[in-house]
Amino acid sequence: MAEAAPKPIVDVRDLKVEFRRREQSVAAVNGVTFSLMPGEVLTILGESGSGKSVTLKALMGLVPDYAHVTGQALVDGKDVVGMSRDELRQIRGPVVSMIFQEPMTALDPVFTIGDQIAEIIKTHEGLSHRAAMKRALELLEMVSIPSAARRLKNYPHEMSGGMRQRAMIAMALACRPSVLLADEPTTALDVTVQIQILLLLRQIQKEMGMAVVFVTHDVGVAAEISDQVAVMYAGRLVETGTVYEVLSERSHPYTEGLLSSTVHGGMKGQPLDMIRGQPPNLAALPPGCSFAPRCSQAVESCHRVEAPAVTLGPGRLVRCIRAQPLLAAE
Amino acid sequence: MFLFATRRLFQAIPILLGVSLVVFGLLQIVPGNPIDLLLPPEASPEMIAQMKAEFGFDKPLYIQYFNWLLRALAGNFGNSIFSGQPVAGEIAVALKNTLHLALPAAVLGFSLGILLGMLAAFNSGHWLDKLFSALAIAGVSLPHYWFAIIMVVIFSVTLNALPAQGMGEGSLTEQIPFLILPVITLSLIPMGVVARLVRATVLDIRSQDFVGALEAKGLSKGRILFHVAKNAAPPVLAIMGLQFGYLLGGSILVETVFNWPGSGNLLNLAIFRRDIPVLQGTILVLAFFFVLLNLAVDIAQAMIDPRIRR
């Protein structure tokens, strides 16, 4: 890193993504702020529908046309919000790239793996087909695909799930991006394959010094891979901090709930804790704190006033009314 | 791939045999007898028997079938009962005439259909989509012969710009004015069918995850279009194969309106004249081309989409 104060590679300020259709407007992402230094791994943790995937997609402008994006999302110093299609095309690949959840459906079924990797190199670096294929081979070897040369000519349906996800990672890394976005890349895989893919990602991230934003609902995965963790609920980040801070302090009741509802924290013979109720309908959020209806520690004012964002330290934020007295007590 | 192609080729043989059996069998069931048409009502039984023997109608059916099939395989479909000319020659001429219509009609219909379908799919919900979809539906549902007659009324009768019927004589360039109206008429259905399928297929493919992933790779618009088109090609090829097959069969109605001596016309006349050798020969040859066409489509599909090869 440079001698001067290093600048964050991803800097998101008050990002909002609203889906507007006819009368209804749903804010899938509602004022999200975080930043990430080069070479860091941030995990966004949350349930389905909490807006974590949309946040990720907004970072490379992949939201649909009817989505209304406001705020700021600096990636490598350039604001992705409001970028033209051509500008987005320039940064997708060399600056920021993405690994998708389902390697089967995210790969084009009628092109070979080699062609699919090579075309991204040809597009961004103007290499010849042969040179690009050679790079594709190196990439497949880097993600430890056995008999890589043969796999270049394979179609996605001829590979196993784990192999496809490795190919997908190779593709995302093809132009050495500074930021890698991973949208639940292990969710669709067998458990034994999951850990292999995680280890691979961690190793490559270290080697290439990439920043990674990792989206998952699996606490174990977050603990395994991340430096920073951001817990997301109903379009907002409710708790952020280093992985140690968030997983050990659990200052937000939702984080506490998430952690105690995994088998990792459970005791044999005891029923698992769980968070009561359903995630809220984003189109009709309750007044006050959006987690209050499900919160076991909610007090009366939680249902009236929006929870304040309490800063406990640099990058350490908790959005809960109870966090304030905690701070005062310290 | 080669294995797949040869396997498909061998699978075509029983299909063609089946077709020949149906063609032969159906005409045995059809009421009416060519001998009755050829001979005066007061013909003596001896004359009828002699006539039957001449055409081989006195032998058992399976013998008739094998004789007919063996000769057909050698390209000999017998002589027309009506004209006495070899059927093979009549079919060749008719098919060639129909091809003059079918080829340009297919090129026009398919390219317009693909264009309209693509434009509709990429502007789905927009008024362009609605306009093109309406055009496609009109193309499929307008009665052929009605459209043909309207075209004749406008361009031949009122404007006196194009010939109303016949296929002209002399060089190909001199025939072009005669082609315009029937080709446009014939291209309507393929255009509509292809446009509707292209729209539906492209919309379906564009909604799939991998298209979003392609955008995430920073590919150009044209490159993404290429991916979408390659994925959409197999079903569209299949429908184009079928449509071209129909065009080869010639449209009885359109060929009648424009008095075009093609295969549709030949079939039509053969039916009314109870000209069984012509009917059998024409249907068999058309079926042969139809099977061949679908074979070609199958192979093309497998070349595009590797998942079909198994």
Write the layout of secondary structure elements.
The complex is a heterodimer of chains A (330) and B (310).
Chain A: E1 10-21, E2 24-36, E3 41-45, H1 52-58, E4 67-75, E5 78-79, H2 85-91, E6 96-99, H3 103-106, H4 113-125, H5 129-142, H6 148-151, H7 161-172, E7 179-183, H8 191-208, E8 211-216, H9 219-225, E9 228-233, E10 236-242, H10 243-249, H11 253-260, E11 309-313, E12 316-319, H12 323-329
Parallel strand pairs in A: 3-8, 3-9, 6-7, 7-8
Antiparallel strand pairs in A: 1-2, 1-4, 4-5, 9-10, 10-12, 11-12
Helix pairs in contact in A: 4-5, 4-7, 5-7, 7-8
Chain B: H1 2-29, H2 34-38, H3 45-55, H4 61-73, H5 87-122, H6 127-141, H7 144-158, H8 172-206, H9 209-216, H10 221-248, H11 252-257, H12 263-272, H13 276-304
Explain how this protein is built.
Chain A is of the alpha/beta class and 330 residues long. Chain A folds into two domains: 237 residues, P-loop containing nucleotide triphosphate hydrolases (Rossmann fold, 3-Layer(aba) Sandwich); 69 residues, no CATH class. Chain A has twelve helices and twelve strands. In chain A, strands 6-7-8-3-9-10-12-11 form an eight-stranded mixed beta sheet, with helices on both faces. A four-stranded antiparallel beta sheet of chain A has the order 2-1-4-5, with helices on one face. The two termini of chain A are 34 Å apart. Chain B is mainly alpha-helical. Chain B is built from 13 helices and no strands. The mean pLDDT of chain B is 85. Chains A and B meet through α2 and α4 of A and α9 and α10 of B.
